[in-house]
Amino acid sequence: MTAPILELQSLCIDVVAGPTAQRIVHDVVLTVARGEILGLVGESGSGKTLSAFAVAGLLSERLAVSAGEILFEGRARSFVSEEEMRALRGGRIGFVFQDPLSSFNPVRTIGSMLVESVVRHQRLGKRAARAVAIAGLAEMRLPGSDACFGAYPHQLSGGQRQRAMLALALVNRPSLLIADEPTTALDPTIQLQILALLRRQSEGRGSILITHDLGVAGAVCDRIAVMQKGRVVEIGPCSAILGDPQHAYTQRLLQARSHA
Amino acid sequence: MAERARLLARWLGSLAIVLIATMTVLFFLVRLTGDPAIMLAGPDASPQQLQQIRQFYGFDRSLAEQYVVYAGKLAQLDFGASLADGTPSFDKALASFPATLLLAMLAMALNLAVSIPVGAWLGRSRQGHARRVVRGVLSVLQGFPGFVLALLLIDLFAVELEWLPAIGYGGPVSWILPVVSVAFFLAPKLIRVLEANVQAALLASYVRTARSIGATPNEILWRHAMPNALLGATALIGAEFAFVMTGLVVIETIFAWPGIGWLLVQSTLNLDFPVLQSITCLLVVTIFLVNSATDALQLVLDPRLQQRAAAP
User: Fold this and answer.
1) B120-144 tens-digit pLDDT
2) Out of A95, A106, A151, whose CB is closest to B304?
3) Are residues B243 and B171 in the same domain?
4) CB contact under 8 A, A107 and B215
5) Looking at the domain assignment, is residue B110 inside a domain?
6) How far is it, in rounded angstroms, from Cα A82 to Cα A80?
7) What's the pLDDT score for residue B1?
8) Most CB atoms within 10 A, among A51, B11, B120, B215?
9) Residue of B58, B70, B85 lying closest to B25 (CA atoms)
10) Do B312 and A156 make contact, defined as CB atoms within 8 angstroms?
11) Contact residues on chain A for B211, CB-CB shorter than 8 A
12) A with B: how many residue pairs have Cβ under 8 Å apart?
């Protein structure tokens, strides 16, 4: 097996705003391999989003990685400057967020966002970037990608917006995709379409799918890591986690799902 | 096309209603304030002279009669001759318009040029000494009446330092003090609003998206947050522009700036009704136009307000 795209080694995250630091993510150990989708599952506040956001330095200023190491494509995070980190964000690491309406700027067209990212990371001119952006939108199966290019976020449907968000995340062909609850704000039928798209786009890159829904994780992930109160309590292949959960918390999550 | 014609008709209709209402209120207000005949003839005039003047201008007829004549003349855009010098009053009001427009444009330009960077900086910066000092200065400026600021500026730059002329409309150098006085009166409000808007915008989810595609802090501020912050300030910018187009009575008087505000004071002192009526009519139209322009600007800047059915 080749080296993993991403490796978290005993990652700890502290709240650093108060007089004393308070640890909220403890010793998280994870790897993401090329072609694999890792599901990060847990309730709100379990630290799944923070662990993933720490990878690209998207943590808010009140939070800091306090111990452990993040290896992205073999490079240790502690040796990456903020400027290099910006080159990684959107270039090598793509993000998809939960609510695609509030995550798009209401006064910017979808196309202008993609062009901005392409110009920044691929160093193309506006015209060439526009072609790349439209191709990126078409790749996400957005009908009429020319029209979507000029559209404002409010003019698209929820499913179209999330496809556009995926196009923005993937337009520079990153090696890691981090999707934070990408289907939570969508209708069930649209959820399935977006998950299928995620699966198709996972080829050749590592993906992290953050979700509170074990069912969603089970539908597309290769492996699942269950997090609770800032710790990974169980990790393993999808079938093992869903079929034979070892940890009491995972069992409760599964039960909660069958009751729902 | 029919839709557009309908909108235009509605727009003209509301302008007409506003004009009729204002001019009616003005007609009665003006006739409650004193006897224009005495004003015209002077305190030493004989009763016969007063009578002649009342007959000549129609002041001796009943209010209802006067109103009918007044409304008829307004409908033909005839505002009558100025009581002071007999020239057509509407032309007189119009002639003072360019000076006010010049002052308003320059002051708003300076206001925006100062407010946008300062508001952006305050909205982005964290607590610190520099921020506290700037905010303190803003509070003081905001508490200053515009005319006090104008007098202080005149005292410093015209009287003490003798760098700039104290009054006038004589050329760019003489414009500096009036323009700065007005702009510094307007800027604190706009800075406050922009500061709050920038702060709010920087917390929005789309800023996180901007970070996720590698935008630098400056790009995030100017390309992602500022357009939204400015959008939220268009109403205030429109209101400030309407204010400088109509409400600079004191500033224009202090600097002897021959604009509408200055003419308004002169005609009020002379009880020059026709000129007052012309000015009022002009101001009503101006405010109406500025408000309409602000609405239109908001429509252009905020894509969410455009009722475009053509979503892909």
Assistant:
1) 999 998 878 888 898 898 988 888 8
2) A106
3) yes
4) no
5) yes
6) 7
7) 64
8) A51
9) B70
10) yes
11) 58, 89
12) 86
